[in-house]
Amino acid sequence: MITLKTVEKEEALTFYEKEGLQINENSLCLCAKNKEEVLGYSLFDIEDKKMVIRAIEPQNDLMLLDGVLRSTLHIAASRNVTEATWGDNAPEKIFKTLGFVTKENTLNITKLYENKCCGCNGCEE
Fold it and tell me: Considering the entire predicted model, what is its pTM?
């Protein structure tokens, strides 16, 4: 069974180093795991009602990345974060493919509450 949850700073540091990113007091990491095997993760900062997704994996598995992204945005929603954007290491093109990018070039947190599995338009309504 896949679990998605935030991890402690010590474990998060491993992923930040892998991505060549500096960790700070606002940095968090959400991991997707099957038992102890890491399947994916997102690295993000939350500060002043704003989330910045700095990196997200796996970029080669669209459905798993969709789940990791939705779980990350759920953290934003649960903390009353009103704006989510992405950094240089995050895959803007994939976010667009999944249908999460707004006209203002932010991530649409309210998309979490739509009744679709992802934004790929591959399923019928």
Answer: 0.88
